[in-house]
Amino acid sequence: MNKNLQIYNSHSGKKESFESINKGFVGLYVCGPTVYNYVHLGNCRTFISFDLVYRYLQHLGYKVRYVRNITDVGHLESDADTGEDKIAKKARLEEVEPMEIVQQYTINFHETMKRFNNLSPNIEPTATGHILEQIDLIQKIITNGFAYEAEGSVYFDVNKYNKSHAYGSLSGRKIEDLMNNTRDLDGQQEKRNPLDFALWKKASKEHLMKWPSPWSIGFPGWHLECSAMSTKYLGESFDIHGGGMDLKFPHHECEIAQGTSANCKDPVNYWMHANMLTLNGKKMSKSADNSILPEELFTGKNKHFSKSYNPMVIRFFMMQAHYRSTLDFTEDAINAAEKGYNRLFDGLELLQKVKTSDKSSESVEILISAFYAAMNDDFNAPILVANLFNAVKFINHINDGKASISSQDKIQLDKAMKDFIFNVLGLKQDTEIKSSKLDSLMDIIVDLRKQAREDKNWATSDKIRDGLQKAGIQIKDNKDGKTSWSSH
Amino acid sequence: MNKNLQIYNSHSGKKESFESINKGFVGLYVCGPTVYNYVHLGNCRTFISFDLVYRYLQHLGYKVRYVRNITDVGHLESDADTGEDKIAKKARLEEVEPMEIVQQYTINFHETMKRFNNLSPNIEPTATGHILEQIDLIQKIITNGFAYEAEGSVYFDVNKYNKSHAYGSLSGRKIEDLMNNTRDLDGQQEKRNPLDFALWKKASKEHLMKWPSPWSIGFPGWHLECSAMSTKYLGESFDIHGGGMDLKFPHHECEIAQGTSANCKDPVNYWMHANMLTLNGKKMSKSADNSILPEELFTGKNKHFSKSYNPMVIRFFMMQAHYRSTLDFTEDAINAAEKGYNRLFDGLELLQKVKTSDKSSESVEILISAFYAAMNDDFNAPILVANLFNAVKFINHINDGKASISSQDKIQLDKAMKDFIFNVLGLKQDTEIKSSKLDSLMDIIVDLRKQAREDKNWATSDKIRDGLQKAGIQIKDNKDGKTSWSSH
Predict the structure, then answer these.
(1) Which chain B residues are closer than 8 Å to A124 by Cβ?
(2) Residue B97: which of A123, A211, A444 has the nearest Cβ?
(3) For chain A, how many structural domains are there in total?
(4) Are residues A373 and A397 in the same domain?
(5) What is the rounded distance in angstroms from the CA atom of residue B397 to the CA atom of residue B385?
């Protein structure tokens, strides 16, 4: 097994050799969704990207503990600790209890992840499920002198922290520049410095989701939950923290500050960020009417694409771009991916059937090691896909008699291709397609039966009848001359 | 709409007219699973029974808030507050973090519920997500004088409570009898009375799941979570509390004591209990090798049944017994249910096709009102099913020319049958079946194509080729004379 894995560390800005803290084990934390709406396609790309990471680490033999949270409280509309809680606002608009919003969109999120064939994380903690852990973390940060209470809320003291640590080191921002870019906002008077962020917010009377704490009845700040839950389940320092590029600042910057000030150590060894999606060349945006939900892609009910796509085709399409590159959703590009997806599975199917020879005309070992080389280079899925197509070309040549493969090499190549296609890229052949094809096939059969009867070809019509009976399909000629069928 | 709903209240021991606390709204709480193992079939029956309740209440026009918890901490091996935490024990055996056990079996639970076509509850709270609410509840009970602290643990004072309230009223047990039946167990020395139950348990050093509290670092008692969560999401008094018969004592008895002593009111208006399952006449029991998992029923991989069953057939089978009756799983009974299931859907399909007349020979209104009468009589699904079969008989008679139906009545009956079959009973026609049939149909088509080619019947073989192309199916003649196909 080839373990020369290189990971691009967003914190250092370069590729680094991956070494896990505990040999053979990896702790992986990824920021999950705020469940107040249908998960959008950009988020899906992030979760698919880290599903690839999770799968490849496991393929390399690591025992991975993958933690991805559900944000069900504390994510306010504005990063400046103002505005309504996103979930509570939706609950108010829909006149339900906030936890009903959480349930509805958590279910949608899980269903969408499943359609994309993402593996479930090992632990999926919720922010409301870790209020005590968050309170405990705040107390540590206060004790260490990096947070202060004001009017029942607790804020992180960014200036104080920056004196001994480098605030902004992940996102490459300088505190002076940040300061110059802040405006005085309402509700910020309690802060010593506009850059300070809330660890605990005192709740107003109308506020729906709130808990007792040493400072007030209130709720935790959004940045806090990930620090509390990653520490609880992965330790004070862990291996890999992932998330979307948009979370780098302020969310991940604040996580580093919280973890470092609470535990006096850097919480994360490797930071990874997945890049954004565009739709037809433009930023996805609901307000600009340039956005699409996963479900709308799968059903074809949208105004951006003329047909529907299988989730596996979309996943394959995403795999054809590196996770750190932006990816543009266009009809031409996805149609091309669809062809590629079919070509890949056709190649794999063909491999099962090709004849073997005494010797291979090409080195299968080199073909396979290229799969590893691609993935070891910062999970470069598009290069992996290109290398898989090299294998498909080889298979086609074998089939055409232009190349040869030994039986042992055939077994090796088959295993490696299946490993990388199914287990690493997380693709699968779609069974859903089958269901919709049943009607088309029955149309053909009903038509052939009609023809046979008209031709008085009783042998054929009997054959059809017997075959359908065996398949458990009842066929019935109605009085109106039409034929119907049922499949009990 | 007929709203004369009668519910058998386990607390009073009789059927009562249902009146909800808030007109038009119903609060429904059902004890969910302890997620330390695959959900067993008996639990499934309970959740399917309350899915029926949830569905019918909604059909009657109620806006239902259905809360079903996930027990992820505090459920000890013994009801006497001793033994290991069930989840922590499994985590120790499997050498993982307890929350990994929770995640694994919560996913299995959700998947199984989905296969049975159970609707998701509106809120699915977890015990670990409500530690603060549980601490708050304990404080209320202590303040009201019904609980005491001992060595960092807090116990409910059953004797004290029984002086002013009737402990045992739900399960019909007398405290004197209970006292006579208790033995002195290890770890019970802190209790004033062996019947007292833990609200909070001080954790040992090795204990994995623990939180700070005013009394100790520890964990909540199992009975407490349901009181805390039902109060939080449904109020201090709510309409319906359901669960399996095995939870009546001590779990539900303790819930009544907790709620009453904390809030000075009876927490629940209607208690409902679903009865148990047997397998081939005997109690299901893993240790006696007389048990079966839902998955084993669906795959047929088990030693009790000679074939596999569709989840909808199992659901239909369960609907043929009243939820308060025991139900025996036998091969003959399920096979009979399978036939009934098919007969019901055949009848519904036939209804779409029958010719209408000027007048109906039977009163459709009476047929439909019988559906309501059955369900209004304490959710009597088996009577509903019998009444649906009366409708099927009528449909068959129409088809045979022995009865007639007007076009308006046909529309009415169709709507009512679909409402009760799909929305109330929660049955659906299976699409999974379709997928497996695809192969059989392709066998027929490939065979017909071969025959046509042998007969030099090019018109037919062209027709097949065109039909398959339209269906998106590629057919390929291999060198070995066999024909393969792929459906991209």
Answers:
(1) 103
(2) A123
(3) 3
(4) yes
(5) 18
